[in-house]
Design goal:
heterodimer; A: alpha/beta; 5-stranded mixed sheet; 9 helices; about 45% helix; B: alpha+beta; 11-stranded mixed sheet; 3-stranded antiparallel sheet; 16 strands
Chain lengths: ~270, ~375
């Protein structure tokens, strides 16, 4: 590819991106992290939440976003939220709370680094923070609680994590939480094996179990040998689809890779 | 009544002779002459034959009070022909040394008749070899208490001809197994696993030669099993000429009782040998194993064992060494503080390293 062709290609890519940005509504256009399509929040509340979300996102390097819609247009909450995540141009590393007023549904979706940090356990912590106020109709308070809880988790993910190793889904690196279990396994384990071997050397007076030393050469004669086939059993197991976006993770993701690179979504939702 | 004893005396100086394992000869401690055991045995036989006609009758009934039945059952009293002292020992002792003059003494009547062994394997290794083997046994044992290893704690060392029953046997067996062959393949979006089930039958026989089982209650079974095997190429027709200088016991567990231990070992070996003929299958389970032991031949032999006793914190530790091959076994005391120190010494640095690696990987 020569220099002229590169320039032409670059021009078309830039034009396409500009067109897409102008054509897409919502967050990408406005740059806002909190979007209220259902008209639940006052302007002040919306501005305050946006400032709060932006501050957390800037501070932690992970977008914390909220989308409030009247309905999901017949889609499942998982699919709708995943589409919205891409459509609203939330950063590759982020967490999105979608609330549908009509169905009284909510869904928390994480992606990229956000996916590594907000496991099912952390999503549960988020729910504990915002669902009570949401159920009571205190929407601004609920969303503020969501952002605050997300900030706490992002600020110190180790403290909020359960004691179990979690491997980041996109395979770029491994982030172990509750790594002490892993540490114990790979430190106590070898020590136990070493001590076990040494202890076994201390005991050498053992009764003989067999008399194999006293079978002379040619002492074993097999005069009858028959291998009879009886029947067979067949079991079938559906193969789990494994790819970079949903590698055997729990959390209820539909497994779609979304429009962004570097990993998939995991989400969790419920009614309020 | 004191029993009859035999001392093998040097034909040159009449000093006591003892069997030297390294040369395989009877050696005189005084004039240092050595003799073939067969030569001395023949000389002694002539001497006993000549002395038999002149055996005096002693009226000993009047001396002392009679032994109780329990005492009589468990003890034997002998006169040392060298110094005249009375030697009291176990009812099964066939060879010992005088506690006063250390004269090696054999009580041939304990080994006569039905109790006479068929074979003996002479001692090849002396007590210095046993001490060296014990010192070697301590080496490389990280959990051995330092004080135990540093001091020579051998309290007693004895070379004993231990009575063993040697079982020859043929075992016929029919064994039936259930086994599987498993293979899998992918069909569309499914993993298909096919398991083929088989019934396997094996018939045949296994020959065993001279499985040793000790016939002495005094000897711990685990120790006697663990010092196997003996080299049967050196099995020699029994002669008391090999006994001087060592202890020797007659059996107090008969062949019928010992056969139970032999049978258990034979059955285990037959099952293992037949199982090795099953290959290419997974998930093998034994449906039945019909093992029939043919009436075999049993021989009685005295095999050489060095027994070493030590003590640690009031507990007696027993070590046994094969007097022919030098294989030494015995459980050692454990220093639990050393175990804890080694455990911590491995686990703690590893934990630090693993944690650092995790921190680096996890960013």
């Amino acid at each position: 590819m020569n220099f002229k062709m590169k320039r032409v290609t670059l021009f078309f890519i830039t034009a396409a991106l500009l067109f897409a940005a102008l054509a897409l509504p919502g967050l990408a256009a406005s740059g806002a992290l909190v979007t209220d399509e259902a008209g639940l929040l006052t302007e002040d509340e919306l501005r305050g939440l946006n400032e709060q979300a932006q501050a957390v996102s800037d501070q932690c390097g992970c977008d914390v976003a909220i989308l409030i819609v009247q309905s999901m247009g017949g889609q499942t909450r998982e699919n709708f939220t995943e589409d919205a995540y891409v459509r609203y141009g939330i950063a590759e590393d982020g967490v999105l709370l979608m609330v549908s007023i009509e169905a009284r549904d909510y869904y928390t979706l994480a992606h990229g680094e956000g996916d590594a940090i907000f496991s099912d356990y952390e999503k549960g912590q988020l729910e504990d923070a915002f669902v009570p106020a949401l159920s009571q109709g205190n929407y601004a308070e609920a969303f503020s609680d969501f952002i605050s809880a997300a900030k706490d988790i992002l600020a110190s993910p180790e403290e909020s994590a359960p004691v179990s190793p979690t491997v980041e889904s996109n395979g770029r690196s491994m982030s172990f939480r509750g790594g002490w279990l892993f540490v114990l396994l790979f430190s106590v384990g070898p020590a136990l094996i070493f001590c076990g071997v040494q202890l076994s050397k201390m005991k050498s007076a053992k009764p003989a179990r067999n008399a194999s030393n006293y079978i002379p050469e040619g002492g074993l004669r097999i005069t009858h040998r028959e291998d009879l086939y009886l029947y067979r059993t067949v079991t079938r197991r559906r193969i789990q689809q494994t790819n970079a976006s949903n590698s055997s993770r729990s959390g209820g993701s539909s497994g779609r890779s979304g429009g962004s690179s570097g990993g998939g979504f995991t989400g969790r939702g419920g009614k309020f | 009544m004191p029993n009859e004893t035999t001392v093998y005396q040097c034909p040159a100086c009449t000093g006591p002779l003892h069997f030297a394992g390294d040369t395989g000869k009877l050696q005189c401690d005084y004039c240092e002459n050595s003799y073939e055991p067969e030569t001395i045995a023949a000389l002694m036989a002539d001497k006993e034959c000549a002395a038999g006609a002149q055996q005096p009758e002693w009226a000993t009934e009047a001396a002392g009070s009679p032994w109780s039945e329990a005492e009589m059952a468990g003890l034997r009293v002998y006169n040392c022909p060298s110094c005249g002292a009375q030697v009291i020992c176990d009812a099964n002792t066939a060879a010992t040394s005088c506690a006063y003059c250390n004269n090696p003494t054999v009580m041939p009547q304990m080994l006569n008749g039905g109790l006479r062994p068929d074979y003996v394997i002479p001692f090849k290794l002396d007590n210095d070899a046993a001490k060296q083997a014990l010192a070697k046994h301590y080496k490389g044992k990280l959990f051995l208490p330092k004080e135990f290893a540093a001091q020579n704690r051998i309290e007693e060392i004895k070379g004993i001809y231990v009575p063993f029953w040697l079982f020859d046997c043929q075992a016929d067996a029919d064994v039936c197994y259930r086994a599987k062959k498993v293979h899998s393949y992918t069909s569309g979006n499914e993993q298909v696993t096919v398991t083929e089930h088989y019934r396997l039958t094996r018939g045949g026989d296994v020959t065993f030669q001279k499985i040793p089982v000790d016939g002495s209650k005094k000897m711990p079974d685990a120790h006697m099993d663990a010092i196997e095997p003996f080299d049967y190429n050196e099995l020699t027709p029994f002669s008391t000429a090999y006994l001087p200088g060592f202890l020797a016991d007659k059996y107090d567990v008969d062949a019928a009782e010992s056969a139970q231990r032999a049978n258990a070992r034979i059955r285990a070996s037959v099952e293992e040998s037949f199982a090795e003929t099953v290959s290419g299958y997974s998930g093998r389970t034994t449906e039945y194993a019909n093992i029939r032991l043919a009436q075999g031949e049993v021989k009685y032999a005295l095999l050489p064992v060095w027994m070493l006793n030590s003590s640690w914190k009031g507990k007696t530790l027993t070590f046994a060494m094969n007097g022919q091959t030098g294989k030494l076994i015995g459980d050692l005391p454990i220093s639990w503080p050393r175990v804890a120190a080694w455990f911590a010494g491995i686990a703690v640095p590893l934990a630090v390293v693993v944690k650092l690696i995790l921190m680096v990987i996890g960013g």
